[in-house]
UniProtKB/TrEMBL annotation:
Family matches, as PANTHER family: PARTNER OF PAIRED, ISOFORM B-RELATED
SUPFAM superfamilies, sorted: RNI-like
Name the UniProt record assigns to this protein: F-box/LRR-repeat protein 3
CC annotations in GO: SCF ubiquitin ligase complex
Species per Swiss-Prot/TrEMBL record: Melipona bicolor
Amino acid sequence: MLALMNTVKPDSLDVDNDKFKSIMKISSKGSIEHRRDRSGGSDEDSAKTLQLLRIKGFHRLLPEGIKALVNYCRYLQELSLPYSLLSDELLLALSSENQMQLETLRLEVHPETKPFPRVSDKAWFTFSSHLPNINLMLLSYMTSEDDQSPLFAPYVPITHLYFGEAPSEATMLRIGYQCPQLIELVIAAYGPGLLDHALLSVAQRCPRLNAVGLGDCEITCSGLLEFVTLCAKRLRILYVWETSLIEDSELDVAKLSKNVSLLLGRTWVPEYIPLC
């Protein structure tokens, strides 16, 4: 979560590599950038038990390649790729393999990859029905409201949402209606305007939300307290920059910290951000 507060765009979302026996990255040149096998088997065996696959730099994946990938990587647990590579064929292929053990699908969206592919509701519905417990992580660097709209649609089972650029209020309000399975929300920046109303809307309509990170935003102390009051029983992670908190007539930062700590049942304070 904390890495996404950095204003520098990472090549890809950090992944906990240590939990995987074998990892492979494939670049657009077709070369293997990184590979580690701790299983002790041969190259052929390690490829057939591949658990984490990152794909970047390709403009598209052909249906034949998708089918071969799915058939070959039946033990794949995490798949990380640009949003531009999504297609009905890919989702349906992932949904057709009964032995598929996929647990996490990570998608990264950047403005330079437009136009975005059109993925049908039917393909998403088939995918989410076949993998009902999938963790769908979406990292968005989009800034335009029109560009954000296609990312949130019915049957897209987003569980972890990371905004690397400031989303609009309309986008935030859409999350509550389109992402009922949301578990984690990270907002690196937001504005202009207060985040209070939009964050409360998400809290009210996303009953599974239990992790929130707020970076360069503006939210009143009273607004954050109201949010925590709604989510206290399920909120495991609350990361808020101290500089994002706006004191009001009812609460200052010290009183807010005390009240939030009481609600969460543990000591909580906002993150201190040194002013450069």
